[in-house]
From TrEMBL:
Superkingdom of the source species: Bacteria
Annotated organism of origin: Sphaerimonospora thailandensis
Classification lineage: Bacteria, Bacillati, Actinomycetota, Actinomycetes, Streptosporangiales
Full protein name: Uncharacterized protein
Amino acid sequence: MDTGYGLPVVVDLATGKTLEEIPSPDGGLIEYSTVARDREPGTYLAATVVRKGSADPRYGPRGAKSRIYRLAMDEKGRMTVEHAVSELIEGVIRSIAVSPTGEIAYARSTADKADRYFSFAGILGTDREWPVDDPYRLFWQDESTLVFPSRAEPPWTLGTNAKGEKFIAGGGFLPTVNVRSGATGKLPVPPDLTSYGMVRLAGGRTIWATEVEEGVHDTVSLILYEGPTAIGTVFSASKGKIVSMTLDATGRHVLVGHEIMRATGPGMYDNAVDQKLIQIDLQRVAGLPTPTRSSRRHLDLPQKTVWQGDGRRRIEEITW
């Protein structure tokens, strides 16, 4: 998570206390745009952004450049910036993903003088890049295949929410690319997925964020899948939304970012945000059989709230 101004913070999940802000590579003011776990325990990759004229991260990517650094965390949760792993890259890097063999993929957004946005995904150390719809939540399907998960491809389904509003409900596939051959492909996905991504478990099972209409509420859930078959519900929230999730290094726990917006008065801006980070134990998941037909039965996995906030920090992106 970060301070809301591009400064990531380290949180002790045992106590819920903030330990520190991640330091700047050069000791000056800095904006971080994304952080991801590296392959080695206690190491991370983070993208910093250099802007002309203003360091306010709320500005778009026009004129910005990014650089990726490797960070290390000690046993007390203190972070140090070790070294840069990239040169300056045009635009703002929005996501980083490390392959099983250690290749570093990134997705970046740029803008022209008319503030038209363009997004690309690439591999560090090569000149390979591909245009993508959105630069968020990039991930590796395997050591050679990148998945661009923010927007699903057709077939789309048209749904109606509790207010009678029409919306596009997910799709059938996510676009993929083989980084060796450049061949494109499609990864089948649940038809009601949201834009908040997925995590891949050991053995190939996945947990996807999905949204379905149930009565007067749109219920946002995390669903465990074996291929296209739903095994059960890992987490469900009848109010608010799931804004992020991440696995720990062992794959035993998933951390879920959940937010609820509530009104505090009659005005448009009279509201408050209740935030939680919820830790869910996945130990029993490996032994669950795959049903012959998809099931959304609740798996009743152990869970606990490890941090609570009031909206002053951003939890749309968390890394364990």
